[in-house]
Structure formats: C-alpha cells, structure tokens
Amino acid sequence: MGARHHSSSDYVEAAKIRLFMNTCTQCKKEFTVTDQDSLFYEKMGVPHPVLCADCRRQHLLIWRNQRTLYSRKCSATNKPIISIFSPDSPYIVYDRDYWWSAAWDPFEHGMDFDFSKTFAEQFNELLRITPLAAIFNGNSENSLYCNHVGSMKNSYLTFASWGDENVMYSDLSFGDKDSVDMLETGDCQQCYELVQSNNCFDSKYCIQSERCNNSWFLFDCKDCDNCIGCTNLRHKQYYIFNKPYTPEEYKKRAAELRLDTRSGIEKTKREFEEFKKSAIHKYANIITCESCTGDTLTGGQNVRYSFALRDELTDVAYCINGGRNLIDVYDGYGVGFGLERGYLCLDTGANGADNIACFVVWGCQYAYYSYNCHSSFEIFGCTGVRNKKHCILNRQYTQSEYEQLKKKIIAHMREAGEWGHLPSPSISPFGYNETLAHEYTPLTKEQAISLGFKWQDAMPGTTGRETLVEVSEIITDVPDLIVNEVFACRACKRNYRIVTAELAFYRSKELPLPTQCPQCRYDARRSLRNPHTLWNRQCMCELENHSHAGRCPVQFETTYAPDRPEKVYCETCYQSEII
After folding, report:
1. How far apart are CA 42 and CA 328, in angstroms?
2. Based on the structure, what is the number of domains in the chain?
3. What does pTM read for this prediction?
4. Residue where a domain stops, chosen among 422, 454, 484
5. Is the N or C terminus of the chain more exposed, i.e. has fewer CB atoms within 10 Å?
6. Under DSSP, is residue 231 helix (H, G, I), strand (E, B) or coil?
7. Through-space distance between the first and last CA atoms of the chain, rounded to whole angstroms
8. pLDDT tens-digit map of 396-423
9. Residue 532 domain-assigned?
C-alpha cells in the first residue's frame, strides 16, 4: 500500500483527457469518474466507486450523529451522562472522561480475524463489545451539552464548533463569543441568527456578511455599520434597505421599525426577504483558488465539488467542512488540519496520512476502517485504540505479522466487494434519522430501512407538556421565573425551555423570546444556506455597460439551482456591480 505521488499539474491535465461513465448501484443515476479520479484511486489502492458522490456522502454521514443527544447511564460507573448513543442502543457507552482514562483497555476486546466471515460482520461485533465514548467533546469547560466540539467555554447545545465562549444553539461556529443561533460563522461577538458570516459585532439576522457591526438583516454586506435590511453594500453606514440616512434620521427610522418587539422583527424580516430578491448573487464564494469548483472555498488548488473548506487545499474532491492543509483527500466530511491522502473519511485528520474509511480518527498514519482511534500507526478495523502500532480488530501484532495479515484481509475484502467502499450501513451505530445523512437526504423510515439503514424510533424530546402558551411580545415583560416554564414550538409543537444564560442574552440585546424550538430554528438557518450540490448555469447579467453584448456568455457551476429566482452572476459581472 505504498503511496505513489502525482503532482497537481498531473491531475489537472489528466482531468482533461476523458470521463468514465458509471451507474450508481443505489440511485441508478449515471456519474462520471475522471482520469484525475482514477489516478487518486490508484494511489490509494482502491477500486472505482460503485456509488455516485451524493450516495457516497449519504453512506458516510450515517456515521455522524451530530445533534441528537440522550440522557443515559455510563456503562462503567452508572453515573448519568449525556450521550449520542440512545439508552436502548446495544453498545457499551462510557462517560467521555472515563473513556479517555487508563481505567480500561481496548485490547481486552480484541478479536482474531475470521476469514469465514466478512470484515463488516467482525467490525460490527467489535463495535458492540468495545466501549464507545459517549460524546465527542474535547478540552472544554462548562460545555457539557455540546458534541463534535473542542476548546469550548460556557457553551450550550452547540455542535461541530471550536473555540467558542458563551455560545448557544449554534453549529459550525468557530471562535465566536457571546452569541446565539449561529451557523457557519467565525470570530463574531454578541450576535444573533447569523449564517455564513465572519468578524461581525452586535448584529442580527445577517447572511454571508463580514465585518459588520450594529446591524440587522444583511445579505452579502461587508464593512458596514448601523445598517438594516441591506444587500450587496460595502463600507456603508446608516443605510436602511440600501437607502442612506443621516445618523439622526437613521435612529428615528430604526425606532419606527420596533425591532425590540416580535411583531416588528417579523415584519422587517418579511420586507427584507422581499427586498433581497433584487440582490445580485455571486455564483460561488471562492477566494484565492485555482481550478476549483464548489462553494465557500479559500486557498485551494484543484478542488472539485467541495464546500466550506479553507486554507492550503490541494487535489481535493467531494469534501465538506474542514481544511487547513488537505492534500489528496476525496469524500470527506469534517476533515483537515494536515490530512494527506484520505478517502471516505469523517471527522478525521490532525496530521494523519493514508486513511481509508475512518471515522473520528486523529493523528493516525495508515489507518483503515477504524472508529475513534488516535495517534496510532498501521491500524485496521480498530476502535478506541490510542498510541499503538500494527493492530487489527484491537489485537496487537508484530510488524511482519501485521503486514502479512493485512494483505490477506485486503484480498479477502476485495473478493467480498468490501475493500475501498464504506462498510454496510447496517453497522453504523446510529439510526438514519439521528444523523447528518437525514439532513442532507431526508427519508421516511420505510425508505431508510429499504436501503439498509437503521432507524431510531425513540427520538429525544416531548410534546404536550407545555406550561405556558403565550409568549411575551417584548423581553422587558418576561420575569426571571420564565426559566421554569415549558413552551411548545410554534412550528413542530415540540417542547423546549429557556435557560438562564439564554434569557440574559435576550435581555442584553432587547430581543423577544423565540417561539420555535432550537431544532426548528436550526432548520430555518439551514434553509438560508445553499445546498451542497452544483448545477451548470450561465451568468444572468444583461447589463449593457459590461464587456459583453446581450446576456453574459460565461458558464459556471453553482449551488443555485436553475429554477431559483435569484440573479446569479459570474465573478467578473458581480465584481463590476458590487465592488
């Protein structure tokens, strides 16, 4: 399995030669495999995929329960814990700190490889007898109800985030402080309901905006202060719906909008959504990149069909969320921080190399089909292994024994059609509806089971237990004892509460209490983010003062579907109008 290296130029030239047409074994749609892809698969020693990119993503994401939390008991200490594994699941689950301690040994559960069985059967058995960590939450302080996070402080129900402080109900939030209901944000402070925005201060309901302060309802604005309901603005102050005001006029008009009331906010939101229809949308947010397709990419070279990646990306395809030194990585979610040569990996990286079908594997080299392993070398089908070498199914081998057995297992998996593909979805420890796969590709229980996925019937949450129906229009009418009440979500009827720190935030920002549960608010924010899918389109610009005659002829790949009403421009036309 030694790696053979190809330069970026090799990839770019190869991609221009020809395409191989395959038919997805699940959805039956045709998909392409380029020569560039073939070089990658050859490098990794794996066959061409049998699933299209969307179905591969679906099978990968069933291994990530990001937001579904349960109360249960630690299997070792019997103490109450928060866990991503339901109480009725057949797994041994340890409290996070106990799992990381030396109180138990993952090698106690090691297995000899049985060549009369498939790899998936044996890995499934290992997952069931080896303790699993209750939650993925490292280096955090007073942030118990957070998952797939690190270096958090005083945060609550925040997921897939890093380095936040006093942040609640947020996802993909990095370095934010004193903020609530954020999605794909970074280095924001005292903000509320922001989506794909960075370096903002004291702003609410902003989308794809940067360095904006004291503002409400912005789309694609940069370096703006005291603006409300604006789109496509740069370096502006005291604008309302893209109209300039004096500071005195602005203050008076802002007061008339009554943004300290729920009705005022909802009315302004409706006006903003209507006004936003006239905004110009850039086909993709791709910055300092070369030969890249996707969206929200920064610092990439030869990155294809990827989203929300940044910094030093080279020869990457079909990846979402991650970055910071990715080289030769295909089909990943939450990958980065120095991952080189990875395939079908989820939440994997940290100076890892040659990882195939790995889930939550950090700092490992030559790791295959493993779950929650760390700082190890040459491991195959392991779980819970840390600081080890030459292990298969949690059993230790000498280097020569390992190399011989590894070759035999790969040959066995090739014969069974397992090698180079994700394990059978039935061995994921999660139900389909618990995972990110359900967010990207919603299915009914019957549809999920027909495709081989599990389903979780007993999802957390209650209905019908509300103690308070009417919610005050303004925060000043809300008493301290509101934290003892139970509300019913206006959208889905699920019950939810207001916690003390959350109430303090709403009071400090003069915001009314939310009338929807955290999950419905999250779903609403996700609807404001474009899907991680690309369509071929033509620039819609028809302005006569541009360099083209009639409609701009530039073609591109974009996350805006052809039937959407927004005005989508190529980079040149967008820059001509906005900057």
Report:
1. 12
2. 2
3. 0.94
4. 422
5. C
6. strand
7. 50
8. 999 999 999 999 999 999 999 999 999 9
9. no
